[in-house]
Structure of Type II NADH:quinone oxidoreductase:
Amino acid sequence: MKNLVLLGGGYGNMRVMQRLLPDALPDEYSITLIDRAPFHGLKTEFYALAAGTESDKDVRVEFPKDARLNFAYGEITSIDLDKQIVSMGETHVDYDELIIGLGCEDKYHNVPGADEFTYSIQSIMQARDTYSAIADLPSGSTVGVVGAGLSGIELASELRESRSDLNIKLFDRGERILPAFPEKLSNYVKKWFDQHNVEVIPHSNVVKVEPGKLYNNDETYDVDLCVWTAGIQPVEIVRNLPVEFGEGSRVRINQYHQIPTHRNVYVVGDCALLPHAPSAQLAEVQAEQIVDILKKEWNGEELPETMPELKLQGFLGSLGEKEGFAFLMDRTVTGRIARLMKSGVLWLYKYHNG
């Protein structure tokens, strides 16, 4: 029996399982999924778990069930690409093909104290810890959110609705929020923050974090709690692989999403060097192509000389429960409609994944 091993139960490998099971997997194959948790975490919703507006059960779905799908739960300690073995301590799993989808962790840019004195929403466990810490804050406390990308924006807005008694400061490195997108979108988000008493601090450059203090440029801010959303990188075990890396310490892959020196190993999602910023949508689109390649390989078919471009529809973001923003097919959508669209996409995802 041959073994297709999936590392990580994130959006990419969820799509792989969805496409291959129950009928598209060759008879001589089984799938082994290795993950720390016995469920798929909806990472795009971890900000709401941390803010306290969604419960733990709202941000996870069960993995698929199939007679040829095996599970191994635990922390991966080594990946031997030459021997084709993945280890979790004393437990070893052999593979014929491997798909690495282990996701990312915070990148602290060598800022002293950032790792030690800030909270995170990168994993469900970290989001739980962040929620517990925020819930313990007394009224009038100040929360600093470092990083005004999509995660920082959604966390700050959701936290405002969850805890109207807190002071919230959002540290934005750019001149305006989401500078890569139309100014109309940026202005809408900034206006929402102004109306809801969230202080946005532009041109931020956080240089040090200490307990109760955040140093931004030449100014010092008193903060009772700080959440870091200012950058990501592949998890450490992927960064330690003997492969070639590109921008952001992401793994260089060929047009078939394979590690060039080990073509039975695929990299999906946040760990892969791709021409788009990491996102759940990108991981799913990439996973679709990986499944197509696997099927051709299994059937002995010749691979195409080039692969289709990875096309994304855009992105959706929320501003609390009732408002949102979107950039879809080069169009900006704001307000209640954008929020309903995001809720609908989440509902459909949960529905199609059981």
The radius of gyration is 21 Å. The longest strand covers residues 29-35. Residues 2 and 29 are 5 Å apart (CA to CA). The chain is about 30% helix and 30% strand.
